[in-house]
Amino acid sequence: MDMKSANRKLSLKDKYRLFTRDLGWEPSYRTREEIFPYVQYEGIKVHDWDKWEDPFRLTMDAYWKYQAEKERKFYAIIDAHAQNNGHLHITDARYLSALKIFLQAISPGEFCAHKGFARVGREFPGVGTQVACQMQAIDEIRHAQTQIHALSNYNRFYNGFHAFAEQRDRIWYTSVARSFFDDAMSAGPFEFMIAIGFSFEYVLTNLLFVPFMSGAAYNGDMATVTFGFSAQSDEARHMTLGLECIKFMLEQDPDNLPIVQRWIDKWFWRGFRVLGLVSTMMDYMLPKRVMSWREAWNIYGVENGGALFKDLARYGIRPPKGWNDAEEAVDHMSHQLMLGLYQWSFGTAFHAWIPSDEDMDWLAKKYPETFDRYYRPRWMHIRKLAAAGTPFKNYGLAKLCQCCQLPVVFTEPGDPTLSCHRERVHQGEKYHFCSDHCQALFENEPEKYVQAWLPMPQLFQDLQGDLTAWMDWVFLRDGEDNGDYADSLDRRNFEAWRAMATSNQ
Amino acid sequence: MSTVFIALQANEETRPIIEAIASDNPLALVHREPAMVKIDAPNRLVIRKESIEERIGRRYDLQELQINLITLSGNVDEDDDSLTLTWND
């Protein structure tokens, strides 16, 4: 090699110090307690904020430079996608259901994460922490914007994309993600960091973005691959920050351990329940599947999560309480939830469908212990009903878990034939739960969860159970946005347009 | 033993980087997946600036990795010359 790297004036470490620590100051006319009023009440003890360090040592100047580069790459592909009728290059229009759930449930969550980081960046006293939170706040709003922008190209042609912002607040399955973020945003700054930095970034986003975006590539959707990977390139930094935050709390004071452990238990389970939606996207909604939900869980849950908890064991951290039940549930959750989404598809702003024989054979191969035994027979029965002209629709509204807000469709640990349902009376009101873990979370913070806004009970309180009025209120156009994919407008349009694009008729 | 990993977008910019990582980490396993390349290694993986520069024939700032990074796993330590991922056992 005939060239050499020139020595820079400042090393990365010096630059990081100047762009973080050196920007801080000691307050003179107000006390630190007055300026940072929210860092004490959670009980986390911090002795030296300067011990907080971003391992990437990213400074604002470099941040803008690389983020601008990411944006240029992103928009080059989005433009190409729009100019080349990219929406017709996807495998088939079933794929759109996954995008609709993503836009309705996940993208608004990115915006919540933005608001949350803008807030905790103000509430944490450490300068390194403030800078990292500021960058993450900007990242998260970028993610919300790029996702909405990329998917707006589908909104021009297909149903179900048009009212994601309202649906995020009002519809039942999106409230799962909404309640996750509401819970995080109404927590203290340290708990917020565990909720988003650890649970959302470390546990969820790998499972959400990596195999799913690889799946988008397999299904011909370059727009989604691009926003997915562009967002994920920030997530690597976010999950590193989340891990750093955990280590920081544990290193600062031994008294922090039980508090951190309780948050890890809580947010692992909350994150796992949000992943229920992702599991159906991976196992059912990608026409060309890249890996099963189970296979993705093995890599990013078992292997990667396992490595993390082994690493944290030196501080006294153990794997989260729900870990073993989660492991068992992985072989069931996508099937149980998809059966739910199908029977309530009159109330979803995306299409569900009965899997084909080929799809079921694939699922049987990926879930050898569970699919043929428990789920194929149900789908076959549902298929028979559909063929007889009496498709299975469940107009009884689902009972929702007070904590995770999923319908109580899951089964007992140890018995996949028995529905799991917990009930508890708190101050004269009855509350329902999908699992022991969600019930335990409620019992730990009942003041918080009694305030949860649950879409199903609300339908009766506000609209006297009038389904048509509810559809208007959630911007759901009956016969267009909802129902079975088999006879949907999206399917007819996609097939007609694709035929036009591949022939001269 | 735990696995550390780094995943990069599969593109022209990352080809020489992946080559450099594979040659600096003999125990690393390179998995080529749709649109991305995931590199696993037992406990430790190091990415060296110098090895990348040798392959691309220009100066390289390790922070440029941010552009094509998809995900990683392990404790991160980055300075001017290298980025290291480790799990403590």
Automatic annotation (TrEMBL), chain A:
Aminoacyl-tRNA synthetase found in the keyword field: no
Pfam families the UniProt entry points to: Phenol_Hydrox (PF02332), YHS (PF04945)
Protein's recorded name: Multi-component phenol hydoxylase, alpha subunit LapN
Gene3D superfamilies: Ribonucleotide Reductase, subunit A (1.10.620.20)
Keywords: Monooxygenase, Oxidoreductase
Residue span, YHS domain: 421-453
GO MF entry, a single one: monooxygenase activity
Top-level taxon of origin: Bacteria
Organism: Azotobacter vinelandii (strain DJ / ATCC BAA-1303)
TrEMBL record, chain B:
InterPro entries, sorted: MOase_MmoB_DmpM, mOase_MmoB_DmpM_sf
Pfam family, one: MmoB_DmpM
One example GO MF annotation: monooxygenase activity
Entry's family note: Belongs to the TmoD/XamoD family.
Record protein name field: Multi-component phenol hydoxylase, activator subunit LapM
Lineage per the UniProt record: Bacteria, Pseudomonadati, Pseudomonadota, Gammaproteobacteria, Pseudomonadales
